[in-house]
Write a structure and sequence with these properties.
single chain, mainly alpha, 10 helices, about 80% helix
Length: about 220
């Protein structure tokens, strides 16, 4: 197991750091932009890229690039919603998503306001629909960015920091013990399970607000 994990980490690190960073930024941009996030696993690309981090400088640059990519993607979703939201909603792809999801996104935004924008970054489906819905609602772009910037920053810090930290810990542990590979795989598995559970918990708590009567927040 140690040999396989070492090979996997080295394979990622053999990719040019600039290329890894650009790929992660583009992947997260696509994930957070209009509807593409329903099919593009941007978070997985970011995790893999973070495993290749070998220094604090690389980690900071990767984190910053992921934040910028996420903001660009969310901004694209916002402005597409402002300019062509109803057309997209009535298109073939919009109908495939389902009217119930569109209405759910609208109720969530009305009920929670800025909090909905912040938390949507951590929620499945809504992280792609909320920026578009916000754009269609007439919500000010400056206020939208004020809520989504800290969400993107927190998200990037969690993903890049934990994955890079796990890879770095494996490198140190592998020099002392023979089962370091199993520890690394276990840590990554716990990370993925923890993120999945956290998203489910947030989604369940927020689902109650989506079905309540509208209540606007700033």
């Amino acid at each position: 197991m140690d040999d396989f994990v070492s090979w996997a980490i080295e394979a990622v690190r053999s990719v040019d750091p600039v290329l890894r960073t650009v790929l992660a930024a583009v992947a997260i941009m696509l994930e957070t932009s209009i509807l593409v996030g329903l099919v593009v696993p941007g978070d997985t690309v970011v995790l893999v890229a973070a495993i290749g981090v070998t220094s604090w400088a690389q980690g900071i640059v990767l984190g910053a690039a992921v934040i910028v990519g996420a903001l660009i993607g969310e901004s694209l979703g916002f402005w597409l919603g402002r300019w062509a939201g109803p057309h997209i909603r009535s298109s073939w792809l919009g109908r495939r998503i389902g009217e119930d999801h569109w209405e759910r996104s609208e109720r969530y935004l009305r009920r929670r306001g800025g909090i909905a924008i912040f938390l949507s970054r951590f929620l499945p489906v809504l992280h792609s629909l909320v920026p578009l819905t916000v754009g269609m609602s007439g919500y000010a772009y400056r206020r939208f960015i004020a809520w989504t910037l800290p969400a993107c920053t927190l998200w990037a810090t969690i993903y890049v920091g934990l994955a890079a930290g796990a890879a770095g810990s494996f490198q140190e542990l592998s020099q002392r013990v023979h089962y370091a590979g199993y520890v690394f795989v276990g840590v990554i598995a716990l990370l993925l399970v923890g993120l999945f559970v956290a998203k489910k918990v947030i989604a369940r708590r927020e689902a109650r607000h989506m079905t309540d009567e509208p209540h606007a927040e700033p």
